[in-house]
Hints:
The complex is a heterodimer. Chain A is of the alpha+beta class. Helices cover 33% and strands 11% of the residues of chain A.
Amino acid sequence: MRVMAQMGMVMNLDKCIGCHTCSVTCKQAWTNRAGTEYVWFNNVETRPGQGYPRRYEDQETWRGGWTLTSRGNLKLKAGGRVQKLLGIFASPVQPKLADYYEPWTYDYQTLVEAPLGDDFPVARPKSLITGENTKVTWSANWDDNLGGTSQLGHLDPLVEKVRRQSEDKIRFELEQTFMFYLPRICEHCLNPSCMASCPSGAIYKREEDGIVLVDQDRCRGWRQCITGCPYKKIYFNHKSGKAEKCTFCYPRIEVGLPTVCSETCVGRLRYLGLFLYDADRVTAAAATPDEGDLYEAQLDLMLDPNDPEVVAAARRDGIPDDWMDAARRSPVYALAKKYRVALPLHPEYRTMPMVWYVPPLSPVVDLLASQGHDAESRDVLFGAIEALRIPVEYLAELFTAGRADIVTGVLRKLAAMRAYMRDVSLGRDGDPSIPAAVGLDEETLYEMYRLMAIAKYDDRYVIPTAHVERAHELEELGCSLDYDEGPGMYESGPFGEASGRPAPVAVETFNALKQRQTTDSATSSEELRGRVNLLNWDGNGTPPGLFPGNERGNERGTDRGTEREVAP
Amino acid sequence: MSTFLWGVLPYLCIASLVGGTIWRYRYDKFGWTTRSSQLYESRLLRIGSPLFHFGILLVFVGHVGGLVIPEAWTEAVGVSEGLYHFNALLFGGLAGVCTLVGILILVYRRRRTGPVFMATTKNDKLMYVFLVAAIVLGLWTTLVSVGAGSEAHNYRETVSPWFRSVFLLQPDVAAMEEAPIQFHVHAIVGMLLFALWPFTRLVHAFTAPLHYLFRPYIVYRSRDARGTGSRASRPGWSGVGTSDRERR
Lengths: 568, 248
Ligand code: HEM
Ligand code: SF4
Ligand code: SF4
């Protein structure tokens, strides 16, 4: 047994309102740069729906993840090492921009500059790729809220599968349809196929917390990882020529802060905490012959931090005591293993994903409520879970490689919690037969309710900080202090626009914050490299660049309180 | 003039190649990439790129064979000059044609596909001029040789000894002088291409990922091994371009 720690996330899908706040804040923090316009480290998909990029779950086309060889060993679905190298000159399976969407902006200039006339000026969409006028025909969320699903719903690979397997049709008529949101980030897998696909070995898993990162200095742009990741959560920065992915906001995690997507989540549905797992058994677990057993195999890898044997092994393997303490209080461990209500996304890809999901009961509840039933009664709910085969099968395709019984079990627990707590909150005695029906006792069910429904901030996020004695090594602290030039030199190098070294992640925010907190003048646009980022604008004065210049090329507007030259 | 071309220029180019590569590796690892454009256009690339790359790798092997291995060695194992020459022309010519067709497809694609053209830097254009010139001139030497039949110039008695002598630090200028003009031009363009190499996207060839065949699939790295992700930028080179693409 080799004990390793893994930062994990659980999302409680019942609470997601599909507001996309997480996507937007993530984008502002990480991919608000040229070359990453189409990159969404966090995206929120409406299911049923095609997802992002379109139909990424169709591995017969995209060849992501692992398969088993005839002898039962793991093999990359896209092929062995030699095969991958032979195909490296032009990657055989690579999503095109059209499978994502062509990023665009609007020609706002015409709104300001159009001469007086009879017609209203229009801001035309301009492609950020070609700079030409473009027609917006798809985006990261085109089928949001089932938009267009009556025409395009059949393109969801899971709908195809469920349809093939059951006589019943998934219908997209309003009365019979169901829908929920699926926020997705990189899964920070235990057995990541992106890493295995990387010819340069630039992708690595951090020993301390299991976060999967791309070393930007070692990535050479072979793009095999993009094929390799079955979740298509590695993106190609077409400006820098390097692969980029969700970083689990490691600079925040290291100092004990939740990721940006979690912190800003409106539904407060994300949980962060530690898993302890047995690194020696990962490969064997991922090679479990029957896909349906992969969920159990993955769950088996998760070690109980209260088990004395595990504690001893963890100490031997160098896991600090405060991390063990955090592991014992970990909400993600509780949801995944103790209550067994969180499920991995697509375990059949065999990557052992570490972002888990509590499947939504809402498709069932909504249907019942719309038909006038009591959606909080145990019997009605239990009966409906049995009767509503289609949503359950669909969820099973997402979370358990088709094992509807596991999904049913989880949904029954959620239903039991709902029914039991109704009595309690109405001041009646709880009915002990309800938790018993799903194999829990009253106390556990109540604990589960506290964690899932009350969900206090400190219960949702149990993040041990990186070690103080190692703090000087955390480059985010070190570099922001000894970084003398600061960001700002962003012109292109002779090797193209992306050459040179990347600016340290936190430097920009660090310097911007310091500047804002220590001056009472406007944030100067140098920090923002000539662009005005309204989210950083502190409302102080008019930073240059806020308004376009006049004909003489001067900035319009002045800068109160600064010594900068004022336009005549 | 000859002394400069065959006695001095090679060393200047080697200095540029070696020094430039070390410098680039130290200061611009972040810019060290294929700068793939497959996201923009895939169809033509899927034909042109493998054609070009497999071709150029064969050509490379051919050059090593022709320039590094002395004629006496091949004759010692019983390969006659005629047989060697025939093979070299046949396979070299085939590989050369593949390379040329491949690169023509790639250049056409660069020019005619809007997004790819927009992502083409001045640096790329300069590199392509030298690369295409080197390939065309190389094929020209082959064509002249084929045309001359058995009269063809045996470069293994002129160019090859000179090439080896350069690395022995005693450039045999006289031997190279005897080679016909097409070899001279090809060699000069080739040297310049290598001098340019470290400063272009061609550096990706130096990091051909052969170690992929041997490394374990899963890579663990400690946070404190050498610090992760970003570190303080070293002075001396510019950072990531983050301005939006210039819009027309
Ligand atoms: C030996 C290992 C090599 C590997 C694995 C390799 C791989 C690649 C890859 C993956 C691309 C990107 C294609 C794309 O998606 O746009 C590329 C582009 C390119 N490579 Fe190589 N390459 C190698 C050697 C070479 C050599 C020896 C040369 C030239 C002498 C070369 C010249 C080029 C050129 C010119 C391009 C740009 C093609 C274009 O987009 O117009 N490569 N290479
Ligand atoms: S989900 Fe993340 S860790 Fe897993 S294969 Fe994809 S990019 Fe790699
Ligand atoms: S912020 Fe939260 S509620 Fe809103 S879409 Fe994201 S995960 Fe769902």
